[in-house]
Design brief:
The structure holds two protein chains of two kinds. By secondary structure, chain A is mainly alpha-helical. In chain A, 81% of the residues lie in helices and 0% in strands. Chain A has a single domain, classed as MetI-like fold (Orthogonal Bundle). The longest helix of chain A is centred in the last third of the chain and has 35 residues. Chain A is globular, with a radius of gyration of 23 Å. In chain A, 36% of the residues are buried. Chain B folds into two domains: 237 residues, Rossmann fold, CATH 3.40.50; 124 residues, Nucleic acid-binding proteins (OB fold (Dihydrolipoamide Acetyltransferase, E2P), Beta Barrel). Chain B has a six-stranded mixed beta sheet, sandwiched between helices. A five-stranded antiparallel beta sheet of chain B has the order 13-12-11-14-20. Chain B is globular.
């Protein structure tokens, strides 16, 4: 027993070190006083100060948050609808195909998603002039497409666990299918919807590859700015920025997990 | 909650002479099921059922799992539509009418309480859908919760309630809309034995008080017996027998009903003497000629079954005076159950017979024991001939 727990502890520690050592290094170096990234010059918050005076970075951050917010919100609406249809598509062969299709964006290489979206946007522009050029709109559309798939999968799994007689009971008590959705189904899948939103938000905030394909000039998102800065040489400013992003993403992920746990508890209660 | 009828109440029952609606010629049924069939692919869940249920009835559909009883109930509620046939409620053809427009409410087996709503809001759900004013909703919810004795728990969520309380919330929720017809799917299935007995009587009281027609689906024959005005016994999508509980038990029309409702001993035999008001059957299994005091329509020498309920048999060491309906065997097993003793007796033919005897005497010396030679006998009118 003792030996086994020792083994478990070692494995866990090594796993966590492997996962988090790079990030810890990054966080520590973001407080480095020295201008040279690789040389430790004592603790300082100066690069955070520099960061907030850098308009390019601040603008990119604001744009990223805006895109993430809008994409997550749209993706949640569409994804919930898709997930709902998927779980209520009664035992037909269509369901198999449809659910395969909806989860395809999850496993599709980002480069391919980005490239195909770019081609679509260009074709659309030449066909009927919309979207005119690439920019915020196209990034949002692109992010919605892949975030939606995540939301759909989360919502569908929640719905498939839900007792369908609840909906029948609501109908029996006089609720039309339209009002039934908002009165019974939606409140019950709310935790899944919220965690879907949070996940979409962080995914959108993280995305570099797809955004690079579909963005236009002057519409650089934060990951794009970081990437271009790093190519010119790593500056301590970027470390500070990356630390802040880790913080935001971590909060998002933790919130999403907390929602999932709440949902699991809610399910237990229904038993 | 359990009210044992006092003597005065028994004497004072007024309309004792009035026939129940289903026995009156030409009475209009409240619910009419007309040649209803439901198929799922190749599988026929409900096979051409016709059934009339009358106002204020508490009708039980009794059957095992897969007998089609739940499918029939779901068609009444509108969750499934019949492949063919019609359902008419209070003179209105229900085909094409959506579940939310039917004058029916259902109490689900799982209760299906909305977990995100409080008890009050669960009960109010149906009333709000009708667009009633806030004060009226509140009044009716309060009255209903009062009736099911949950007025003090209105603010709780379903998961904070016990099984019995949830069951009463579900009942209140389905009754508060004052439906013409209430469907109950295994209403007592999830309750423990003591609570079941209490709730059975409560259900009957509520049904009588509100004058709602109840259709109950159950697999539990005891539940059906205590609740129902009439029972429809279902098997393989067909109603095998529709009758009052007493008749279902005492005069089953087929081997299936006899075996499904209560336990029974069946003796196979051939008709040797067929009189208008009695039959004699030679049964190899029983090792005797059995006499049944009612006529049957059958061909001479036809193979039939004689059904005798275990409690209608008597068991004795001494040969009884009666010549008819007496068989002998050996006690193979017995179980003392307090009020009753159940014996398993093996006849000479190898047939096993189940006999239950009330333990009238306290003395243990009189008790029969293993391997004792015994006689089993029953009254001439205690058995039933089953041709189906």
């Amino acid at each position: 027993m003792k030996r086994r727990s020792l083994f478990l502890n070692t494995t866990a520690t090594m796993g966590f070190i492997f996962l988090y050592a790079p990030m810890i290094a990054l966080v520590v170096y973001s407080f480095n006083k020295s201008k040279l990234v690789t040389v430790w010059g004592g603790w300082s918050l100066k690069w955070y100060g520099e960061l907030f005076r850098n308009d390019q970075i601040i603008d990119a951050a604001l744009l990223s948050f805006k895109i993430a917010f809008i994409s997550a919100s749209v993706a949640v609406v569409l994804g919930t609808m898709a997930g709902f249809v998927l779980s209520r598509f009664s035992r037909s062969r269509g369901k198999m195909i449809l659910s395969g299709w909806i989860s395809a964006p999850l496993v599709m290489p980002e480069v391919i998603t980005g490239l195909s979206l770019l081609l679509l946007f260009v074709a659309m522009e030449s066909a009927f002039g919309w979207p005119a050029g690439r920019g915020t709109i196209t990034i949002i559309i692109a992010h919605v497409t892949f975030c939606m798939a995540y939301v759909a999968v989360i919502v569908q799994s929640r719905l498939s666990q839900m007792d369908e007689t609840l909906e029948e009971a609501a109908m029996d008590l006089g609720a039309k299918p339209s009002s039934l959705f908002f009165l019974v189904t939606l409140p019950l899948i709310m935790p899944a919807v919220i965690s879907g939103w949070l996940l979409s938000f962080t995914l959108s905030l993280d995305d570099l590859v797809i955004a690079s394909f579909v963005s236009g000039p002057g519409n650089s998102t934060l990951p794009m700015v970081i990437f271009s800065k790093v190519r010119l040489g790593v500056s301590p400013e970027v470390n500070a920025l990356a630390t802040l992003m880790i913080l935001v993403v971590a909060i998002g992920v933790i919130a999403a997990m907390w929602q999932m746990r709440r949902q699991a508890k809610l399910l237990e209660r229904q038993e | 909650m359990i009210e044992t009828p006092s003597d005065s109440a028994l004497e004072a029952s007024p309309q004792i002479t009035e026939l129940p609606l289903w026995k009156q010629e030409g009475a209009t049924p409240f619910l009419r099921i007309e040649n209803v069939t439901k198929k799922f692919g190749d599988f026929t869940a409900v096979d051409n059922i016709s059934l009339d249920i009358y106002k204020n009835e508490l009708f039980c559909l009794l059957g095992g799992s897969g007998s089609g009883k739940s499918t029939l109930l779901r068609m009444l509620a509108g969750f499934e539509s019949p492949t063919s046939g019609r359902i008419i409620i209070d003179g209105v053809d229900m085909s094409g009418i959506q579940p939310w427009k039917r004058p029916i409410n259902m109490m689900f087996q799982s209760y299906a309480l909305f977990p995100h709503l409080s008890v009050e809001d669960n009960v109010a759900f149906g009333l709000k859908r009708e667009g009633l004013g806030r004060t009226e909703v509140k009044q009716r919810v309060a009255k209903m919760l009062d009736m099911v004795q949950l007025d003090h728990l209105g603010k709780r969520k379903p998961h904070q309630l016990s099984g019995g309380q949830r069951q009463r919330v579900a009942l209140a929720r389905s009754l508060v809309k004052r439906p013409k017809l209430l469907l109950l799917d295994e209403p007592l299935g999830a309750l423990d034995k003591k609570l079941r007995e209490e709730t059975q009587f409560e259900l009957i009281n509520i049904q009588e008080e509100l004058g709602v027609t109840f259709v109950v689906v159950t697999h539990d024959q005891e539940e059906a017996m205590t609740l129902a005005t009439r029972i429809g016994v279902m098997n393989h999508g067909v109603i095998v027998q529709t009758a009052e509980p007493h008749d279902v038990y005492e005069y089953p029309n087929s081997r299936f009903v006899a075996q499904f409702v209560g336990s029974v001993n069946l003796f196979e035999g051939r008709v040797i003497e067929d009189q208008p008001d009695s039959v004699r059957i030679n049964s190899q299994e029983a090792g005797a000629v059995l006499y049944v005091s009612h006529g049957i329509s059958c061909a001479p020498n036809q193979k039939v079954h004689v059904a005798v309920r275990p409690e209608k048999m008597r068991i004795s060491r001494q040969q009884p005076d009666q010549q008819e309906n007496c068989v002998c065997g050996v006690v193979e097993e017995y179980a003392y159950m307090g009020g009753l003793t159940v014996y398993r007796v093996r006849l000479a033919s190898g047939k096993e017979v189940r006999v239950t005897q009330p333990n009238i005497s306290r003395a243990s010396s009189e008790r029969l024991t293993w391997n004792e030679q015994v006689y089993l006998f029953w009254d001439l009118d205690s058995s039933v001939v089953l041709t189906a």
